[in-house]
């Protein structure tokens, strides 16, 4: 079977990660890279066509598929341009920067009939899939609740390199929590409402440095989430899974999933239960480790993208699903700002509307 021709739009940190993974995959032929810093990128990737304008990549290299790893506010425009040319897309998270642009992208993807995959790579971890299967098999009974922490101390240089991170939209809710929201939706089920509070007391930036959220799932399960980028701890998914070199490995579990007959720590995958499935607080509770092999989630994601393009699998996360994770994350920020509960069900229903016109700017972009 012939290889899939593929292009990459955006050669920043995450784009380069995708390029490195593509270099080792025999199923793809890289036909071009698009980046506004074309001279620098061309020097770093000799022998690969580099375009300053992503439209030239699409029209001259004519890839079958594209990885979109550009800034969030460009995702919809570029995804729509791909859809109108019949090009399949793997689009980095968040799927777009706003719900409105996500709706326009969804409409164009549906109209074109192309395959789409949102790059929430954590869904491709074997530990995550094992957790999802364990919860689905009711090994701890019905999930009653989830308790989670994401806390690390971002250095001053993190904000000096990109000053926008100290402004609205640059805090841990929209940058980091979206990964965790998607993970919870994937493993526990749909989130239907959120409440939250936030604080900027530690850095006094215009954006939050710490937040706490209450989460209601469609199943009736409840969750609590504490997130901060100004607290030192070993409790982040990145540290627990060892998935990113900038986060030293801790192996510690930042999640507790609590069920009617037991509980599970994640990512260590330690299951706690009572002998014989007892539900009696006077009985001793024992621990059992659940084995899960480790895989490179970015490689597994590329393999899955190949399979959905070839018609051998259904997308683990099409753009419609990625938009739901965006809606839930934006709602946490909204709830924190307004001090109120935000119900998401109507927003999901509105997003599912089959007819959503593209904006004039997006029409010109194609």
TrEMBL record:
Molecular functions (GO terms): nucleotide binding
Domain Gfo/Idh/MocA-like oxidoreductase N-terminal: 4-120
Matching Pfam families: GFO_IDH_MocA (PF01408), GFO_IDH_MocA_C3 (PF22725)
GFO/IDH/MocA-like oxidoreductase domain sequence ranges: 128-264
SUPFAM superfamilies linked: Glyceraldehyde-3-phosphate dehydrogenase-like, C-terminal domain, NAD(P)-binding Rossmann-fold domains
Cleaved signal peptide residues: none
UniProt-listed InterPro entries: Gfo/Idh/MocA-like_OxRdtase_N, Gfo/Idh/MocA_Oxidoreductases, GFO_IDH_MocA-like_dom, NAD(P)-bd_dom_sf
Protein name, entry field: Bll6915 protein
Annotated organism of origin: Bradyrhizobium diazoefficiens (strain JCM 10833 / BCRC 13528 / IAM 13628 / NBRC 14792 / USDA 110)
């Amino acid at each position: 079977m012939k290889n899939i021709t593929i292009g990459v739009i955006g050669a920043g940190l995450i784009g380069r990660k995708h390029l490195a993974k593509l270099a080792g995959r025999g199923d793809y032929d890289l036909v071009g890279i698009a980046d506004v810093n074309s001279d620098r990128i061309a020097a770093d990737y000799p022998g690969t066509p580099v375009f300053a304008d992503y439209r030239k990549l699409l029209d001259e290299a004519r890839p079958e598929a594209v990885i979109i790893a550009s800034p969030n506010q460009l995702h919809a425009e570029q995804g729509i341009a791909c859809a109108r040319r019949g090009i399949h897309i793997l689009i980095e998270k968040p799927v777009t920067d706003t719900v409105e642009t996500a709706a326009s992208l969804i409409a164009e993807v549906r109209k074109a009939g192309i395959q789409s995959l949102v790059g929430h790579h954590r869904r491709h971890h074997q530990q995550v899939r094992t957790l999802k299967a364990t919860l689905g098999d009711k090994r701890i009974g019905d999930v009653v609740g989830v308790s989670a922490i994401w806390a690390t101390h971002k250095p001053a240089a993190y904000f000096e390199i990109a000053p926008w991170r100290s402004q609205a939209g640059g805090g841990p809710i929209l940058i980091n929590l979206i990964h965790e929201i998607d993970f919870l939706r994937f493993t526990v089920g749909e989130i239907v409402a959120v409440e939250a509070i936030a604080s900027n007391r530690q850095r006094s930036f215009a954006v939050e440095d710490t937040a706490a959220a209450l989460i209601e799932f469609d199943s009736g399960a409840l969750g609590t989430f504490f997130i901060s980028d100004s607290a030192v701890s070993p409790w982040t998914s990145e540290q627990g899974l060892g998935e990113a070199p900038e986060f030293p490995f801790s192996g510690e579990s930042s999640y507790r999933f609590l069920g009617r007959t037991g509980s599970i720590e994640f990512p260590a995958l330690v299951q706690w239960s009572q002998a014989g499935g007892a539900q009696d607080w006077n009985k001793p509770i024992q621990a059992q480790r659940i084995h899960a092999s480790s895989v490179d989630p970015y490689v597994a994601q590329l393999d899955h993208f190949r399979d959905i393009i070839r018609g051998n699998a259904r997308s683990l996360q099409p753009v419609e699903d990625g938009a739901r994770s965006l809606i839930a994350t934006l709602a946490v920020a909204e709830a924190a700002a307004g001090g109120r509960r935000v119900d998401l069900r109507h927003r999901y229903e509105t997003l599912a509307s089959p007819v959503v016109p593209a904006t004039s700017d997006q029409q010109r972009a194609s």
